[in-house]
Amino acid sequence: MTQYTVFLDRDGVINHDSDAYIKHPDEFHFISKSPDAIALLNAKGFQVILITNQSAVGRGMISVRTLDAILKKMTRGVEQAGGRIKDIFFCPHGPNQGCDCRKPKPGMILQAVACHGIDLKKAFMIGDSAKDIECGKNAGCAITILVKTGNGEKALAALTEKGIVPDFLAGDLYEAALWITTNFSSENIVS
After folding, report:
1. Is 9 a known active-site residue?
2. Which of 47, 117, 120, 160 is disulfide-compatible with 140, CB 3.0–4.6 A?
3. pLDDT given for residue 2 in this prediction
4. Strand ranges (DSSP E) for the chain?
């Protein structure tokens, strides 16, 4: 039976975002209970995959090596809470580089599908921006969830203007994880 997959954005969902970008591991700070949310999802049988735009790399603000160090800090914190991020996909490109991977394009999710045999009818996309929700919908994820942390409030207004409605609005990642694990299980296939 195909496992449920939860795709997560990083900045504003797992960690506090910054208009100046997260450029060093010391600038990475978890949003309260986000590692616990990932652990809860894993405990209930959901695999978690990170899907994140990281244009600071393409802009020359950080190196891939520094990004790796930031991601290692994140994965260690998640593991200390008892969770696991199965894989990480990032887009290093700037908004004007015309790549297929930068959200709202679905490239990173489609890469994950190809790598891990994911059934998008059993996939969730959780983000704090309009482009996260649009990416999930563009890829064909069954459920999109907007969290109010990060840019969530601005994103809701932008999505409303476009006539796009996330399937669920959560206060934060932990509330989203509770909603998912309460409403979906391996016996309860998303239609």
Report:
1. yes
2. 120
3. 66
4. 5-8, 47-53, 87-91, 123-127, 143-147, 168-170
